[in-house]
């Protein structure tokens, strides 16, 4: 390989990583929109250059998404929404500095681990993906939703209500199965559905901003922030275990088409709640686990793509199209005909993860200097960033109206002791559940018994039993870990 091409590969990886980090910090844009914008400008570049650039945007966004989640309770990306719960509470208590450090280090460790797995085990682990038909994926999706939403409240009815509400909202828009619009009420802008960023931005960030601005006697003093805040005794060890658990969960779910970073972050958070009783009250483990999981899932998501040619999400679909355009053939042939290209792509991902942690950690001091400003000014700035980000989705006033509507809904749900996160989880996975359910019935010719006599259901029952036993052992007085 020529030295010039190697230099271009490194530069494209660095530029993509930086762009992905910035995109992750900006709610409303996200890696999908960013990659779609830059695709016309990189298709005439060598295959490795364009692929390394696009891949760097993807995993760079996983890094950047945690920043606004922790500082402003505004998820930059759907996979970082769960980080808002503990991350923002830590920032409110003046511990944003260690939270951001844990998020960056956890993402780095998980990312490196995911790359190593992808390099050494892709030809072998890809065989697992062939066992997951729409039938199995439907069962795993339902289990993932119930598993993730079970940790937010002791009241199971409230969890179920929030989840079903999210699933109902996900049904809005065009139905590809019958070619009809559903629940749009004649509004053409709703035919494509509601973007997840609008819902998450409104119900988490928007509601938080409005509640703090409306709070009586709101002080305008700067928010307490200490950029020298150290880890408490024992926190480093606890975070190391949380990172390890999140990395393993994310690496496994990344192998499953339809799993990936989003489901990985939700499930890892639920599992971490078994091991750490105070998850949900503002602890570092609640940041370390999901941030590690979403990065590991983002890396191992390349395994189904490279080995089977199965793109598991929108970003992978764009990368899939780019690789086809560049003349690459998927499957076992890829590793024999383009082994050097695959190796260099994964090497560029390794370089990108190293660059991200080297850039992000020093930048944290500058990023968090914003806390020196008065609180109301910070809230106003966060609101403007949110509004501009949402408007940039479709340049539509309707999107801004939806944002405000979901912000008010988030306030109402919070007052009713229903976690808005259950709505977001239901919405995120609702379309997947419907799509896999319908495909399963089509494949089985309407045979519902296929959902019962299924090895995925056996897997779910085993995992549920283990989860229940662990919860009993960790907290014998209750069926699950309580929030304090």
Enumerate how many helices there are, as a single number: 19
Show unreliable segments: 218-222, 476-484
Question: How large, in whole angstroms, is the Cα Rg?
Answer: 22 Å
Overall 3D shape: globular
Instruction: Calculate the terminal CA-CA distance, rounded to whole Å.
Output: 57 Å
Number of strands: 2
Task: Provide the number of structural domains.
Answer: 1
Level of helix content?
over 70%
Order of strands, main sheet, comes to: 1-2
User: What share of the residues does DSSP label as strand, in percent?
Assistant: under 5%
Strand and helix order: HHHHHHHEEHHHHHHHHHHHH
Q: Major beta sheet, specifics?
A: 2 strands, antiparallel
User: Which class best fits the helix and strand makeup?
Assistant: mainly alpha
Mean pLDDT figure: 75
Task: Describe the protein.
The longest helix has 34 residues, at 96-129. Strand 1 (173-175) and strand 2 (180-182) form a beta hairpin. Residues 218-222 and 476-484 have low confidence and may be disordered. A two-stranded antiparallel ribbon has the order 1-2. It is mainly alpha-helical and 484 residues long. The protein is globular, with a radius of gyration of 22 Å. It has 19 helices and 2 strands. It has one domain.
């Amino acid at each position: 390989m020529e030295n010039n091409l190697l230099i271009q590969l490194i530069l494209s990886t660095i530029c993509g990583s930086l762009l992905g980090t910035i995109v992750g910090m900006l709610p409303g844009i996200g890696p999908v929109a960013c990659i779609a914008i830059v695709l016309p400008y990189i298709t005439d570049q060598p295959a490795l250059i364009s692929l390394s650039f696009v891949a760097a945007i993807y995993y760079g966004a996983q890094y950047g998404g945690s920043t606004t989640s922790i500082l402003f309770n505004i998820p930059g990306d759907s996979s970082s929404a769960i980080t808002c719960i503990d991350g923002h509470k830590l920032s409110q208590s003046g511990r944003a500095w260690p939270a951001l450090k844990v998020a960056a280090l956890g993402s780095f460790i998980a990312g490196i681990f995911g790359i190593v797995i992808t390099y050494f085990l892709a030809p072998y682990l890809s065989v697992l993906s062939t066992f997951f038909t729409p039938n199995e994926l439907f069962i795993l999706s339902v289990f993932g939703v119930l598993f993730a939403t079970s940790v937010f409240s002791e009241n199971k009815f409230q969890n179920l209500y929030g989840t079903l509400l999210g699933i109902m909202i996900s049904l809005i828009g065009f139905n590809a199965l019958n070619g009809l619009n559903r629940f749009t009420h004649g509004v053409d802008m709703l035919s494509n559905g509601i973007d997840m960023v609008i819902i998450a931005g409104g119900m988490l960030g928007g509601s938080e901003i409005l509640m703090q601005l409306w709070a009586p006697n709101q002080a305008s003093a700067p928010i307490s922030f200490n950029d020298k805040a150290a880890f408490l005794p024992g926190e480093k060890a606890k975070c190391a275990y949380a990172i390890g658990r999140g990395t393993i969960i994310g690496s496994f779910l990344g192998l499953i088409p339809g799993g990936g970073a989003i489901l990985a972050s939700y499930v890892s958070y639920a599992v971490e709640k078994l091991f750490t009783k105070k998850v949900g009250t503002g602890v570092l483990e609640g940041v370390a686990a999901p941030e590690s999981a979403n990065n590991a899932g983002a890396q191992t998501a390349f395994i189904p793509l490279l080995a089977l040619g199965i793109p598991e999400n929108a970003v992978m679909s764009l990368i899939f199209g780019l690789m086809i355009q560049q003349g690459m053939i998927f499957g076992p042939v890829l590793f024999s005909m383009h082994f050097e290209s695959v190796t260099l792509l994964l090497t560029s991902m390794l370089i990108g993860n190293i660059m991200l942690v080297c850039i992000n950690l020093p930048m944290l001091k500058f990023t968090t200097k914003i806390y020196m400003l008065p609180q109301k000014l910070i809230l106003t700035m966060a609101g403007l960033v949110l509004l501009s980000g949402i408007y940039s989705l479709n340049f539509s006033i309707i999107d801004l109206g939806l944002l405000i509507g979901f912000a008010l809904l988030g306030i109402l749900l919070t007052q009713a002791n229903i976690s808005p996160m259950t709505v977001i989880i239901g919405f995120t996975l609702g379309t997947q559940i419907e799509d896999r359910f319908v495909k399963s019935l089509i494949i089985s010719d309407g045979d519902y018994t296929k959902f019962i006599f299924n090895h995925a259901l056996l897997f779910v029952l085993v995992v549920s039993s283990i989860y229940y036993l662990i919860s009993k052992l960790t907290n014998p007085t209750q069926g699950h870990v309580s929030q304090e």
